[in-house]
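Could you join me in thinking about how sequence relates to backbone shape in a protein? Would you write everything just below, so we can both look at the same thing?
***
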Amino acid sequence: TSGRSSGDTMSLWLTEFVIRGGEWSRRTFGEGRRTVGICRHIEKELAEIQADPDDTREWIDVLLLAIDGYRRHGGKPEQLAAMLQWKQDHNMQREWPPIQPEDLPVEHRR
C-alpha cells in the first residue's frame, strides 16, 4: 500500500482540483480578487437555485464560485480540506435554536 489514508487521498485530490481550477480561472477571468464579480455571480446562481432547487448543477456552480473566491482571497489549496473539516466540526459544536420552518434562515446562538 502507499501508506495514505482515504482522507489523505481526498485532500490531495481536492488540492489538485483547486489548483487546476485556479489556473483555469486566472486564464479565463484574469488576475485579481474579483470580489464583487464573484459575489454577483453567486447571487445569480442562487436565483437559479430558487427557481429550480432540484437542479444540483446550480448548487455545484455556487461551490465552484466559492472555491474560486477562497483561492483569490488568499486561501491555500492544500489547506482547504482541513479548513472544511474544521468549520464543520466547529458548527457541530455550536448551540443551535430549535428546528425552524424551512423558509427561515437558521443561525447559531451567539
Remarks:
- The chain has a mean pLDDT of 95.
- The radius of gyration is 17 Å.
- Helices lie at 6-29, 35-51, 56-72, 80-93.
- Residues 49 and 103 are 14 Å apart (CA to CA).
